Amino acid sequence: MSETVKATIEGKEIAFPVIVGTENEKAIDIAKLRAETGYITYDDGYKNTAACRSKITFIDGEQGILQYRGYPIEQLAEKSNFLETAYLVIFGELPTKAELAHFRELIAEHTPIHHNMRHHFEGFPASAPPMAILAAMFNAVSCYSSHLLEVDYDRETLLEASAKLLGKTSTIAAYTHKKASGRPFCHSNPTLDYSANFLHMMFSEPYKEYLGHPDVVRALDLILVLHADHEQNCSTSTVRMVGSSRVNLFASVSAGVAALWGPLHGGANLAVIQQLERIHSAGMTIDQVIDKAKDKNSDFRLMGFGHRIYKNFDPRAKILKTACDRVLDALKRKDPLLDIARAIEERALEDSYFVDRKLYPNVDFYSGIVMRAIGIPLDMFTVMFAMGRMPGWIANWQEMRQDPKSVINRPRQVYEGHTKRDYLAMDKR
Ligand code: SDX
User: Fold this and answer.
1) C-alpha 310 to ligand 1 mean position (Å)
2) How far apart are CA 177 and CA 205, in angstroms?
3) Is residue 222 a contact partner of residue 233, using CB atoms and an 8 Å limit?
4) What is the mean pLDDT of residues 373-377?
5) Which CATH code is given to the segment(s) 4-50?
6) Phi-psi map region of 69: left, alpha, beta (phi>0 left; psi -120 to 50 alpha)
7) Is 291 a catalytic residue?
8) What is the 309 CA–ligand 1 centroid distance (Å)?
9) What class has domain 71-259?
10) For the chain, what is the mean pLDDT?
């Protein structure tokens, strides 16, 4: 028997059905609220609102739990790799050896971009923000695959579209970097795994092949695994919102890139490093940093701290904190910013301002330090986040498209503007 909750509105008692998820999350289904009472609900920023039902990712923010299709992120981080995780997120099950081999082949086949696409790069100034280029290029890519502009994908079409997006994202990202630095594009090497091939396209030169240290390649692959999906975050919700109008996957992920760009979301990894660099160069003490973060009169926020869902440790931050040591040790390098980050974390976690507000390091707090160690340029950090998040965007778009009850997203509002008034002639204004 399904549960219900009752509300009394203007003397009338209404019973609303309760939806219970497989992890016992409970939601009040208010579908009939407006029809029966004329009322709507208000929830700024959708902090308490489920916009969809999903089977892809589960997060328990209080316990610091993150699972892709039921598999704990800690196990995937330790035992899986990005392409296997991407397949899991998109298709719902871990691939067999043959399925993974086929997926890899398809991605290798679709990694090179159409020769004519190079002209699009020429149209951007050298100073163009990489996220602006990435957002534009996904719509450009779709123009070369008109059959993928349809919106109802069967499994084979979804496989092709996924391979195309995952492959092309790495090429577009690498070419964006090469263009900004004025160096020649480097062709994909299909004999390399995904992350190794991306680093090859980013850093190889005509006169010198880049061969990434295994720990560096592994660290990049780990970053991509950790970013693969994160339920209804701002950019994924944007992909669903845009896709709900029945527009194609490429246009939908292009909108997701735009949402991810913001410093409160995917842009935070870049903002963390910029903040740590400012702290380092200004010689700020940890106490000064903590005091500024707490000062309501300053717009200084501790970037990489806090999360809408995690009110405990972001499990990805814990994993990345360990990865920092591993990759810096492998490269026999020290990074003063890591020492500052660690000291800030230690102080913040003893400070009531952070403890009372349940502000812990999130995925962005350490990911930037790992990417710095790998040699990823600062302005490419958020592009790395987009590369990692691509499987989640694809999976959520497809899940919505396959839902027969899926409707165009169209929230309501509480209107607070002028009530009706008559037009004023010019001489009366
Ligand atoms: C990502 O949604 C996802 O899943 C996102 C993501 C993903 O994988 O897709 O996990 C990736 O976007 C991680 C978050 C990256 N952003 C940052 O690190 C930017 C810094 N963090 C904050 O801006 C903030 O914590 C947010 C945006 C992440 C969350 O903001 P909320 O949930 O809207 O919380 P809030 O702004 O209402 O803050 C609650 C209180 C406020 O203080 P009071 O008004 O109660 O006195 O906490 C304070 C805030 O001022 N606060 C901070 C703070 N974050 C919140 N104070 C100082 N430093 C911070 N970082």
Assistant:
1) 10
2) 13
3) no
4) 94
5) 2.20.28
6) left
7) no
8) 9
9) mainly alpha
10) 95
Tokens read off for 5: 């909750």
Lowest mean pLDDT segment, chosen from 169-178, 199-208, 295-304? 295-304
Query: Could you tell me which residues come within 8 angstroms of residue 141 by beta carbon, excluding any fewer than 6 positions away?
Result: 113, 117, 164, 165, 168, 172, 250
Nearest CA to ligand 1 atom 37: 308
According to DSSP, residue 129 is labeled: -
Among candidate residues 224, 161, 227, 163, the one with its CA nearest the CA of residue 196? 224
**DSSP calls for 224-263:** HHHTS--SS-HHHHHHHHHHTTT--HHHHHHHHHHHHTST
Residue 214 CB neighbours (<10 A): 10
- Which residue in this structure is represented by tokens 């509002």? 413
Is 240:51 a contact under the CB 8 Å cutoff?
yes
Domain boundaries, the chain: 4-50, 71-259, 268-374
Q: Stretch 124-135: mean pLDDT, rounded?
A: 96
pTM (two decimals): 0.95
Cβ atoms 106, 90 nearer than 8 A:
no
**Distance, CA of 107 to CA of 161 (rounded, Å):** 10
Active site residue 307: yes
What band does 2 get if pLDDT is binned at 50, 70 and 90?
low
Strands 4-9 and 65-68: unpaired
The yes-or-no verdict on residue 240 having pLDDT over 90 is yes
The pocket around ligand 1, CB under 6 angstroms, is made up of: 230, 233, 264-265, 268, 293, 301-309, 357, 359, 362-364
Length of the chain: 429
What span, in angstroms and rounded, lies between the C-alpha atoms of 37 and 139?
43
Q: How confident is the model at residue 312 (pLDDT cuts 50, 70, 90)?
A: confident
**Three-state secondary-structure class, residue 301:** coil
Quick: pLDDT tens for 407-426. Answer: 999 999 999 999 999 999 99
- pLDDT score of 152: 87
CATH number of 268-374: 1.10.230.10
Q: Residue 165: which of 97, 96, 251, 49 has the closest Cα?
A: 251
Active-site hit among 110, 227, 307, 314: 307
CA distance 139 to 250: 6
CB 130 within 8 A of CB 180: yes
- Mind giving me the DSSP string for 87-125? HHHHHSSPPPHHHHHHHHHHHHHHSSPPGGGHHHHHTS-
